[in-house]
C-alpha cells in the first residue's frame, strides 16, 4: 500500500487525515433544521403578527385603499384605523410560545442552507451534489460511515479473524454458583450432640466432658438438607 502511495506521489498520512476529517465532519455546516415561533405565538392576543417591514407595507396599502374608497364615495378623506391583528415584531428565530393556540407550542420548522464559502475541509467532502427543484435547492450529502470504517481498518480495530477464547464449563458453573449464592442450609446430624438452639446454626455446641476425664475431640458429622421453602 505504501509503495502504491509512493508511486502516485500521495502521502499516506494525508489520505488518513482527509478520511478522518470526513468521518468527523458536522453536517450542520451545510444544512440545519431550526424550529421557531409561528406567526401567532407572540402576537397580541395570539393574533397574526407582522414583521416590521410587513407592517409598514400593510399600513401603506391600507391608507391608499381608504383614500381610493373615499374618493369614489365623494367623501372627505378620513381613513378607518388599520386592523393590526397581532401587531408587528415577528421574529422567526424566537422560541415557540408553549400555549400558542395555533401551533400548540410546536412552532414552525425551517430548513436553513448555509453559506458554502466558509466550509471546513471535512464538510466540503460531505457535499455530494446540489439540485435546484421547484421547491428550492436540494443538497445531497455523503455518508460519513464508510470513511470511519476505513480509518478503523487502517488502525487495526476491525479484525475479521478474531475468535473469542473458549470458556471452561466448570469455571462458568462455579462463577454462576458464586454469583447466585448458596441457599442450602447445613445442619448437624450427630446423635452424641444436643440439637442446635437455632435451626440456622451451623456450628453446634460442643458436648461437656465429665469431671476429671481427658477431653477428646468429638467427631462431628454434617449433612446438607435442602430447604423446603
TrEMBL record:
Region of interest: Disordered: 65-106, 183-229
Biased composition (Low complexity): 207-217
Biased amino acid composition, Basic and acidic residues: 65-100
Biased composition (Basic residues): 218-229
Domain of life: Bacteria
Name of the featured protein: Terminase small subunit
Phylogenetic lineage: Bacteria, Pseudomonadati, Pseudomonadota, Betaproteobacteria, Burkholderiales
Amino acid at each position: 500500500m505504501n509503495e502504491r502511495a509512493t508511486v502516485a506521489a500521495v502521502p499516506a498520512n494525508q489520505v488518513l487525515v482527509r478520511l478522518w476529517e470526513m468521518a468527523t465532519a458536522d453536517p450542520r455546516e451545510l444544512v440545519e433544521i431550526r424550529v421557531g415561533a409561528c406567526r401567532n405565538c407572540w402576537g397580541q392576543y395570539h393574533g397574526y403578527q407582522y414583521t416590521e417591514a410587513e407592517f409598514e407595507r400593510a399600513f401603506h396599502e391600507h391608507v391608499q385603499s381608504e383614500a381610493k374608497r373615499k374618493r369614489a364615495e365623494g367623501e372627505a378623506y378620513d381613513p378607518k384605523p388599520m386592523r393590526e391583528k397581532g401587531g408587528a415584531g415577528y421574529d422567526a428565530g424566537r422560541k415557540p410560545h408553549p400555549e400558542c393556540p395555533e401551533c400548540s407550542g410546536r412552532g414552525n420548522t425551517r430548513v436553513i442552507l448555509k453559506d458554502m464559502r466558509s466550509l471546513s475541509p471535512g464538510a466540503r467532502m460531505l457535499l455530494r451534489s446540489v439540485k435546484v427543484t421547484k421547491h428550492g435547492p436540494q443538497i445531497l450529502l455523503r455518508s460519513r460511515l464508510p470513511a470511519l470504517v476505513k480509518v478503523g481498518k487502517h488502525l487495526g480495530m476491525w479484525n475479521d479473524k478474531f475468535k473469542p477464547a473458549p470458556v471452561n464449563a466448570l469455571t462458568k458453573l462455579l462463577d454462576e454458583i458464586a454469583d447466585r449464592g448458596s441457599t442450602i442450609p447445613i445442619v448437624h446430624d450427630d446423635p452424641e450432640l444436643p440439637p442446635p438452639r437455632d435451626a440456622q446454626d451451623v456450628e453446634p455446641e460442643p458436648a461437656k466432658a465429665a469431671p476429671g476425664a481427658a477431653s477428646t475431640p468429638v467427631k462431628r458429622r454434617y449433612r446438607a438438607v435442602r430447604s423446603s421453602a
